[in-house]
Write a structure and sequence with these properties.
Rossmann fold, six-stranded mixed beta sheet, about 45% helix, disordered N terminus
């Protein structure tokens, strides 16, 4: 009997595979590649948005206007939000970055949100059938779910349900390599998990205690909450230690006149590729979202021979979970203390203006929106020739291709112009030839315009940073600012 039922079940599975046009070998490969995910998007008709498509040039102009308005302290012009379909497309990219195989998706349009299930019971039944047909392991919602909504949806779908914030937290957990990054992600996960403990099953309401006790003891839910609170305190203490060490390192750096330049931007805008192009470092540059979590600081030299430190930071994203912003505050302090912020945008994306608007929101939350800023439009190599010819650099915008090395020299010159730290001065010097160390230091740290040798003395005209001028002050003949 069991054999017949098993045989019948296997036959039914084969029929379902044939209907979907899948071979057994393809299914095995798909399972090996990751969990099978079904995506659910939400389009609330009442929300304000502009779904009209714009050209890349118009997008770039809108983002430049927004950045200029913020730097000038003027109210930024209205920028269209992500449409529901664009947001769902981004969720698909996030799911792929998390290692999931997307087997289907649906976009639900509603006049208002359902307080119990977000999208309504009828649509959930439809999703249940579609997810079962695709053997989905989990359902991903492109929206934040309250604890009660998540429980209600799981009760109907009988499948694991994950909202957008939990997906982003999972990607962060996968990509965090250093102990500091792992601590920051753990803190965000714990704070996300805490309000979602209640009602997770019968085991959460089991009572401790027993014969001989005066009361029933605390519930399992209270025990778990207490453990999480204790762990949160411990992780916060460790992160505070990290912050203290970073402050000490920053204090030592600031004792030397070396400016810090922070790279910020939407995730996958090419910040790490640009960082590598500017510093010749070899940090991971990947097309996956949030490939960079652990901060990296490297030094580079500007055309004036001044030294600067570049800081690569975690990418921002639409509706970046507040718990993540708080947890990564120790890392993002580099942005707050930077002398100049390089806002890197993807020039090839049709959503440049929307992405830049989200970066502005995070910078505002970090209280860094008034920092001196240079807008770097990256990935111009993916544009068509006519679009590239139409691009024009200005005082606050530079167009580059970090992958191809295009525009990097211009970018370094613009950074040099905008930095006020360790200002450059034109000087004339008369240095005895025996002062070999001084001459070598000037050759390495300044621009030399003329050099004459007379009676054992070298007469130089050079342009040098103030920190160098102080070290050769005794040899200065004439100084022209």
């Amino acid at each position: 009997m069991r054999s017949a039922e098993s045989k019948k079940s296997r036959k039914a599975d084969a029929v379902r595979r044939a209907v979907r046009g899948e071979r057994a070998s393809e299914r095995i490969d798909a399972r090996d590649s990751g969990e099978r995910a079904f995506l659910v998007g939400l389009d609330v008709r009442g929300r304000s948005r502009n779904n009209a498509k714009r050209s890349l040039t118009a997008n770039a102009q809108a983002s430049r206007d927004a950045a200029t308005s913020v730097s000038a302290g003027v109210k930024a012009p209205s920028i269209p939000e992500f449409s529901a379909q664009e947001s769902l497309d981004e969720l698909r990219t996030l799911a792929t970055s998390a290692g999931a195989l997307v087997i289907g998706e649906v976009l639900q349009k509603r006049d208002r949100l359902d307080p119990a299930t977000l999208i309504g019971g009828g649509k959930l039944e439809e999703i249940k059938g579609a997810a079962a047909a695709g053997d989905a392991d989990l359902i991903l919602f492109d929206h934040d779910l309250s604890p009660s909504q998540q429980r209600n949806i799981e009760r109907i779908l009988h499948t694991r349900v994950i909202d957008r914030t939990q997906l982003i937290l999972d990607i962060f957990a996968r990509h965090a390599k250093t102990r500091e990054g792992q601590l920051q992600v753990e803190l965000a996960q714990l704070e996300y998990m805490l309000p979602r403990l209640a009602g997770r099953g019968v085991e959460m309401s089991q009572l401790g205690g027993g014969i001989g006790t005066r009361g029933p003891g605390e519930t399992q839910l209270e025990t778990d909450r207490r453990k999480i609170y204790r762990r949160i305190r411990h992780v916060k203490e460790q992160i505070e230690n990290v912050r203290r060490i970073r402050a000490q390192q920053r204090q030592r750096r600031e004792s030397v006149p070396v400016a810090t330049v922070a790279l910020v931007g939407y995730t996958n805008a090419g910040k790490s590729t640009l960082f590598n192009a500017l510093t010749r470092a070899e940090v991971l540059a990947s097309s996956q979202m949030f490939a960079t979590l652990d901060p990296t600081i490297r030094g580079t030299e500007l055309p004036s021979r001044r030294k600067v430190l570049l800081s690569d930071t975690v990418g921002f994203i639409r509706n970046l979970p507040h718990t993540l912003v708080s947890a990564f505050r120790a890392t993002l302090e580099e942005v707050q203390r930077a002398a100049l912020v390089l806002h890197v945008s993807d020039a090839g994306s049709p959503l440049t203006a929307e992405q830049d608007a989200q970066v502005e929101l995070v910078l505002k939350e970090l209280e860094a929106e008034q920092k001196p800023r240079l807008h770097v439009m990256n990935k111009i190599d993916v544009l068509e020739a006519k679009q590239r010819e139409a691009l024009r650099d200005d005082e606050r915008t530079v167009h580059v291709s970090a992958a191809k090395g295009v525009g990097i020299t211009t970018l370094l010159e613009r950074i040099d112009q905008l930095l006020a730290e360790d200002p450059v001065t034109r000087i004339r010097l008369s240095i005895p030839q025996k002062e070999g160390k001084v001459l070598a230091m000037l050759a390495a740290r300044s621009r030399i315009y003329s050099r004459d040798y007379r009676d054992g003395v070298v007469e130089l005209e050079a342009e040098a940073p103030a920190s160098v001028v102080r070290r050769v002050q005794e040899f200065v003949v004439k100084s022209n600012s």
